[in-house]
Task: structure prediction
Amino acid sequence: MKRLIFVIFIVLLLINGCAEKGPAKMSYWPTEQWQEATAVSQGFDVELLEEMEADTDNYRITNIMIVRNGFKVYHYFQHEDYMLGAYDNIVPIYSITKSVISALTGIAVDQGYFELDQPVSEFFPEWDNLAPDERRDSMTIRHLLELTTGWDWPEFTT
Result:
């Protein structure tokens, strides 16, 4: 349960950290679909968006969606078949999760919620009931972000 609360906390930090400061707040919450606005009206450079879209052919990018202040300002599909039944399609996201978690952690550290060198064990008091383990007990948030915990993970067998 505490881990779920921690994950929800991180997601809320991302939403708060990415929110526009000042009067341009989201005035609604999307339900069935996003309201749309022009990229220019939300402060985006259209030429940069066009360059980004042209560059997607060099990568395996199938979908890009940019939402700002609650409005969908840009949506790109490389293949129309991804639109149909999109909720049924499982798309591997691989290591992008590390970038998202790093960004969320940076926001949390910047806002003073915790420090990079804070032991991970402080977030998991149930670890106190486990047998002592020097690696686990000395692991910090920085170790997790830098993937330097010293724990083996069979990446290609899971």
In short: Residues 11-23 have pLDDT under 50 and may be disordered. The first strand starts at residue 35 and ends at 36. The CA atoms of residues 41 and 100 lie 26 Å apart.
